[in-house]
Each structure stands twice: as C-alpha cells, then as structure tokens.
Design goal:
- The complex is a heterodimer of chains A (381) and B (86).
- In chain A, 47% of the residues lie in helices and 15% in strands.
- Chain A has 381 residues and is of the alpha+beta class.
- Chain A has helices at residues 3-16, 23-28, 43-46, 70-89, 95-104, 107-119, 236-269, 274-277, 281-301, 307-330, 335-338, 340-352, 359-371; strands at 58-60, 63-65, 123-127, 143-146, 152-161, 167-175, 183-189, 195-199, 211-220, 225-226.
- Chain B is an all-alpha fold and 86 residues long.
- Chain B has helices at residues 6-26, 32-53, 63-77.
- The longest helix of chain B is centred in the middle third of the chain and has 22 residues, at 32-53.
- Chain B is flat and about 40 Å long.
- The chains are: A alpha+beta (381), B mainly alpha (86).
- Chain A binds chain B through residues 129, 134, 159-160, 200-204, 210, 321, 325, 328-329, 332-337, 346-347, 350-351, 353-354, 358-360, 363-364, and chain B through 7-8, 11, 40, 43, 47, 50-51, 54-55, 57-61, 64-65, 68, 71-72, 75-81.
Chain lengths: 381, 86
C-alpha cells in the first residue's frame, strides 16, 4: 500500500460518513436511491468518468483521481461499502456498461454515452443475464434481426440487471448471428419504443434495484451496434469476458466492505466477548484485502486474464457470508431484529455470491488459470 | 441435467451433510447447545442452497425468502451458544 493509496482510502473513509443517515431508509424503499445524490457525496467525481469528461477530479497527494482504474475503485468503494454497499451500486455513472463502451465504441458512440453521463446524473445498465439461461452465451435468446428497411429490431428479456428500471442508457448483449462469435453488444437508450424496465423485489442490496428488461421489437440502427467494424473475435462476448474480469475485483471490494462493516459493528456494539469470538477475522480481512488489490492491479494490466479476479471473488464472497453470520451470532437471540444494520449486512452479503459469476464458476476459472501458469507472482509486476 | 454436473453435486453434498448433522443432533434429547448448533447448520445448509439458486434466490418471491425466514427463526429462537467442549 503506497502513501497515495493510504491517503485515497482516508479520503474515501471520510466521504463514506455522508451515506450513514440514509442506510436503512433507502434499503426499505429503493425508489429513494436518487435522493442519495443529495447526500453531499461528490458523485460526479466518484463515478469513474474518463478524464475528458471529468474536468474537476478529486485530488489526493497532489494527483488527480479519476476513479477509472480498478485499483482506485477497489480502495474507494470498499470504504464506501463499509457504510452502504447498496448505495455504492445505486450511484449513477458508467460502471460495467462504460467499460464495454470504452472497449468497443466508435468515437460517436463514445461521445453519445459519456457526454450524457457527464451532463446529468444518469444510471446505466449491463444487460447480459437471461431468465432461463443465466449468462450462458450458447443459450442467449435475446436477438437482433433486420427490419427489412436497413435497420434492426431487438427483442428479448434480460433479468437481474442492476439499476435497470431507473437507467437512461446501457448495453444489451444480443445474438446477431448463430455460433459462439455471434453475440453482439448494443448501445441503447431506455426511452426507445418497445423497451420496458421493471424493478424486482430483492432480499438485500435493495438500493441497487435489480430489474428485468423487456424488449419487444426495439428499433435499432447501425449507430447502436458496438464494435461493428471490429473482427468477429473482438465483439460482444470478447468485451463481456473482459468486463467481468475487470469488475470482479470491484465486486470483491464491495463484499470486503460489507465483511469489515459487520466485524466492526460486532466488536463495537456487541458483548465484550465478541472480539474473542471473531478473533480469526482481522487476519482474514487483511489477507483478502491484499488479494483484492492484487486482482485489481492484474485487471488494470490485462483484463483478458481473470485468474486473480476469480481468486479474489471466491475469498471475499466467502468472507462476507461467514463474518456477517458470525457477527449476528455474537449478539445472541433476536440480534437481527434488534440490530437492523447487522441484518442488512447479512442480507447484502448474499448478493456477492452470484454477482458476475457464482463461486463455482470462479473456482473453475481459477483452477484453469492456475494449471495454465497464470497465477504467477504478482509482486514483480 | 444440472443436478448431474459434478460442481453442483459437490454443493448439494455440502447441504446434505449439514442437514444430516442437524438430524443427528436432534436424535435423543438435545440440550441448548445442541439446538444452537442445529440452527447454525441449517443456516449453513440454506446458504449452500442459495449458491445453487444464484440470483433467483435473491428475490423476495423466490426460494431465498424461505431461507431468510429459517435464518430469522433461528436467530430468534436458538439458545445462546455455549463455550467449551465435552
């Protein structure tokens, strides 16, 4: 951890306090998430806009901080998630769809997407998962077909899409041709005819407002097709895989933030023996934090390699689930009723398991990467 | 079929082992420490099942709600844990 990283973490810790007053109210009513814009948090500087759209970035140790690298994001977002992981995910801004746009868009598409986000608070979506096929590209049924007049029509349903019902623009993955290389990415505003976003009622991370996107003959033009001039091997699924690899360390940092929050809460507010009962966790938190940072460095260096990202997500997800339940157990019967924040941490922790691939998928990725020699010593990098 | 995939079976076995432990603890006359442990292993089995359900288990109208109810009941009625071993 460098001096810069320590200072960045300190700044984020101070900013996180601004989220405390609304943690439980937004959890109860996710429709209040837009009021987080009034929290005093500098969302415009925190959302990760490219430098050209962020003329007044945060500054730490004299350096501008754009929050557009995985390393900066895992440090800052862990601290914010120690207060409210749901609020972090409910912020407007580019997030995963922004990474796809950065990877695939032409200049006009890039400008169309990021200028809108810079001009006004705009939520975005990343539409990949489908109700019956998950994220398996082989089963993807959302499809783009020609309309016979030089344009296209997009139809299908996406599920478990964060911020989907409140988004203004985002990316949908859809089949354009048969075969594994036939998946394309589409840049899409949500006010098109035939597009509907419906919020789903969830048990945790409620501010995120997981949603279902229904698209019925949504009109498209060539200008909406991302990466259309790139080779077939560098289109939709290529970008999706790189995006998952890039954002798994970020999800891991959110899980780590929730884990740390639950530990802190139990030790601060619990019975005197809480620290003894949770004695093994500080070491695990420290180890997972180091792993998440290493995974973020790897993601910034080469988003094609998700080996460390999978390792970080396995460890952070497992830690969040275990420490949130252990923290509840420190308080004795009725803790979930008497300590609603603890209950929220335990509910929120459940989400990280499935976000951007379950632990089973991460284990398969990690084993494959290890056997192929991709889990090399990261310190030398 | 998904249930025939080895990684899915591995998770299923984890849940089954936890349920088996709960059954074993409830045999005979369980004391408070036994009952505390029963709730905890049921929590564990529930979490393993959530891993199988994926995002579907996170919806209030999905199977995850039943697991949440089980966790809340366990939190409310389980006796405090005891320190020490036989």
């Amino acid at each position: 951890m460098t001096e810069f990283h320590s200072a960045l973490r300190g700044l984020a810790r101070d900013l996180a306090d601004l989220l405390r007053p609304t943690v439980l109210t937004v959890d109860r009513d996710p429709s209040l998430a837009p009021t987080l814009l009034d929290s005093g948090l500098p969302w415009r500087q925190l959302m990760g806009l490219p430098a050209e759209y962020n003329p007044e970035p945060l500054r730490v140790c004299g350096r501008p901080v754009y929050l557009d690298t995985a390393v900066e994001q895992v440090i800052v977002l862990e601290e914010l998630a120690r207060v409210d992981a749901g609020a972090v995910l409910a912020q407007p801004g580019p997030s995963m769809s922004g990474f796809v746009v950065s990877e695939l868009a032409d200049r006009a598409q890039y400008e169309r997407y990021f200028s809108r986000l810079a001009d006004q608070p705009t939520w975005t979506f990343f539409g990949m998962t489908e109700p019956n096929h998950g994220s398996d590209p082989a089963g993807m049924s959302t499809a783009v077909r020609t309309d016979g007049a030089g344009g296209y029509l997009l139809s299908g349903t996406k599920r478990f899409v964060g911020n989907g019902a409140r988004a203004g623009i985002g990316v949908v993955f859809a089949r354009r041709r048969p075969g594994p290389l036939g998946i394309g990415a589409v840049l899409l505003e949500t006010d098109r005819p035939g597009f509907t976003g419906i919020g789903l009622d969830t048990l945790g991370l409620r501010a995120l407002q997981l949603s279902e996107l229904r698209m019925q003959d949504v009109p498209l033009t060539d200008d909406d097709l991302l990466g259309k001039d790139r080779p077939a091997t560098q289109q939709g699924m290529w970008a999706a895989v790189r995006t998952f690899n890039r954002y798994r360390p970020v999800v891991s940092s959110l899980a780590l933030g929730v884990a740390q929050a639950a530990y802190d809460y139990a030790v601060t507010h619990g019975p005197g023996r809480a620290a003894d009962r949770l004695a093994g966790y500080p070491d695990r938190l420290r180890g997972t934090r180091a792993l998440v940072l290493a995974a973020a460095r790897s993601a910034d260096r080469d988003p094609a390699d998700g080996t460390l990202a999978s390792a970080a997500k396995i460890r952070a997800t497992q830690l969040a689930e275990q420490v949130t339940l252990a923290a509840v157990d420190c308080f004795g019967p009725g803790a979930r009723w008497d300590h609603p924040l603890l209950d929220k941490y335990a509910r929120d922790a459940r989400a990280f398991e499935f976000m951007e691939g379950t632990s089973t998928i991460q284990r398969l990725n990690l084993a494959q990467g290890y056997l192929q020699g991709r889990l090399a010593d990261d310190r030398a990098a | 079929m998904t249930l025939n995939l080895p990684p899915v079976r591995v998770l299923l076995a984890g849940a089954a082992a936890a349920i088996a432990e709960a059954h074993a603890l409830l045999t005979g006359q369980p004391d408070e420490a036994d009952l505390h442990r029963v709730h905890r292993v049921l929590d564990e089995a529930g979490r393993v099942c959530l891993h199988l359900f994926g995002a579907t288990g996170f919806l209030t109208d999905g199977p995850g709600s039943e697991i949440r109810v089980a966790e809340l009941l366990g939190d409310t009625y389980s006796p405090p844990s005891t320190v020490g071993s036989p």
